[in-house]
Amino acid sequence: MKSRRTLVREVLHRGLLSSAAEVEAALADNRVRVNGAVVSNAASLVAPGDAVHVAPMANRFVGRGGIKLEGALQHFGIHVGHQYCLDIGASTGGFTDCLLQHGAAHVVAVDVGRGQLHQKMLTHAAVTSLESQHISQLSPEGLRSHWGPGHHGLAQIVVTDVSFTSLAQLVPHIVSLSCNGAELVLLVKPQFEADRNDVPVGGIVVDPQVRQGAVDRVAEAVNAAGCHVHGQYESPISGAGGNIEFFLWATVHTDE
C-alpha cells in the first residue's frame, strides 16, 4: 500500500494548486473536498486513490485577503488609482490583486515566505515580487529602485497583512518607506498584538476588550511615528481560525 500524504502535500503533488499558501486559502474557504466531503484540516492524510477536488475561488481575487482589503478601501473611501503601493505580507497576493483591480500604478509585494505569490501576480507587469525578505530588510533606497521609470519616490499607499509578529513594532520602519501624505491601511490581528496572557490556548481572541486593546496598541505606535489615525474598521471576513481582525487607516506626516 502506497503511503499517504498530508492534504497540503497531496494537493501540490497532483498539481491542483501551485503553493502551500494557495492550499491554505482554499481550505479556509472550504473549497477542498476529499471523496466528496469538505476537509479543512491541512494535516489530514490522503491516500493516492482518494478523490481530491479543489473548487474555483468564489471571489474575483487570487486570495481571500482581497475581500478584506476591498471592504476597507470602500469603508474608508480610499482611492488607489495611479498610486504606487507597498504590500507587506503579500502571501498569495489577495491585497496586491485588490490594489491592481482598483487602479494601482504599481505594487511592490514583500513576503518572508517563498513560492506563495499567485502566478497571476508574479507575471503581472505592474507587480514587483520580493520573496524571502522581511520588510525590515527593505530600505527606502531599495524600495525606490523597484518602481520602474514612472516613480522615484517612496510608497504612496501601504497595506499590511503580517502574522506571527507585532505590527506595532514594524510601524516605524513602515513609515520610513512611505512618502509624506501616504495612506496606511494596516490589518491588525489581535492574537499577535495582545499580551500573551490575554490570548487563550488556540490563539482565538474572544474578549472584545482584548481585541480593542490590540488595535489601540497599533494605533499608538502609528501616532508615535508621526502619523494621524483616521479610524478603524472590522474586516468583513474573519482571519485564520475565526479570529476577528481590524483595519486601521492612517496618513503619514513626515518628509521623505
Automatic annotation (TrEMBL):
Domain Ribosomal RNA methyltransferase FtsJ: residue ranges: 61-250
Occurrences of domain RNA-binding S4 (ranges): 12-52
CDD domains recorded: S4
The keyword Chaperone belongs to this UniProt entry's keyword annotation: no
Gene3D superfamilies: Vaccinia Virus protein VP39
Keywords per UniProt: RNA-binding
Signal sequence interval, chain numbering: none
GO biological process: methylation
Presence of keyword RNA-binding: yes
Entry GO MF terms: methyltransferase activity; RNA binding
InterPro entries listed in its UniProt record: RNA_MeTrfase_FtsJ_dom, S4_RNA-bd, SAM-dependent_MTases_sf, TlyA
Parts of the chain that traverse the membrane: none
UniProt name for this protein: Unannotated protein
